[in-house]
């Protein structure tokens, strides 16, 4: 069974046209027939917004399941990571990887029940400084350094500006890297800030930076789309 999974820093749903619109992102994900969406910078904090309506705007009539991982909360909403799925999310946990004095960060660790069995999905947004990313990757490595037959996909905005940083090298030794091209900024993409990894190495059969008329406008990051081939474990 093919599963279409996407990682996307949506920049609070504020596009390069300065217009905040969750609805157009939700309809785009439906149009692309995305099965699982890993979103970063999901932001419902502005006072005039309604968090539930913003979540529903992404779900439209396409995603049935949702898990949020707030890194910042306010009286009117929250900011952080969010995973949307057409399939049941059986279990999720939020792992704090924040560094004192820096913007809070976390990992949203989920197990999703696809028609062909369990899929382990990790959604994360790393820090801007190399020193904090090194600590954050260490926590991620500890999470992933467990022998398991459940297929795994990791995605997110990893904020790696260098072509080959030490944290990336270590990740690439543990998992198969999926980095089809630069994703930031959309007006002239130069940096591979958004990446994915998988286990086993043949899990991803196709990956691309999803460059369309819509994604050029909807955020300052392009999303990455990966197609997974998941087989029944029964």
List the helices and strands and how they pair.
Layout: E1 2-9, H1 22-31, E2 36-43, H2 51-59, E3 65-74, E4 77-85, E5 89-96, E6 106-114, E7 117-125, H3 130-144, E8 152-157, H4 166-174, E9 176-178, E10 194-199, E11 204-209, H5 213-218, E12 224-229
Parallel strand pairs: 1-2, 7-8
Antiparallel strand pairs: 1-12, 2-4, 3-4, 5-6, 6-7, 8-10, 9-10, 11-12
Helix pairs in contact: 1-2, 3-4
Main traits of this protein?
six-stranded mixed beta sheet; Deoxyribonuclease I, Chain A; alpha+beta; 21% helix
Assigned CATH class: Alpha Beta
Structural class: alpha+beta
What would CATH call the homologous superfamily?
Answer: Endonuclease/exonuclease/phosphatase
Strand order of the largest sheet: 3-4-2-1-12-11
Average pLDDT level: 94
The residue fraction in helices comes out at 10-25%
Count every beta strand, where a strand is a DSSP E run of 2 or more residues. Answer: 12
Largest sheet: 6 strands, mixed
- The helix-strand sequence is EHEHEEEEEHEHEEEHE
Unreliable stretches (pLDDT < 50, length at least 5) are: none
Number of domains: 1
**How large is the radius of gyration?**
16 Å
Query: DSSP helix count?
Result: 5
Strand content is 35-45%
How many angstroms separate the termini? 14 Å
From the spread of the alpha carbons, the general shape counts as: globular
Indicate the CATH architecture: 4-Layer Sandwich
And the CATH topology?
Answer: Deoxyribonuclease I, Chain A
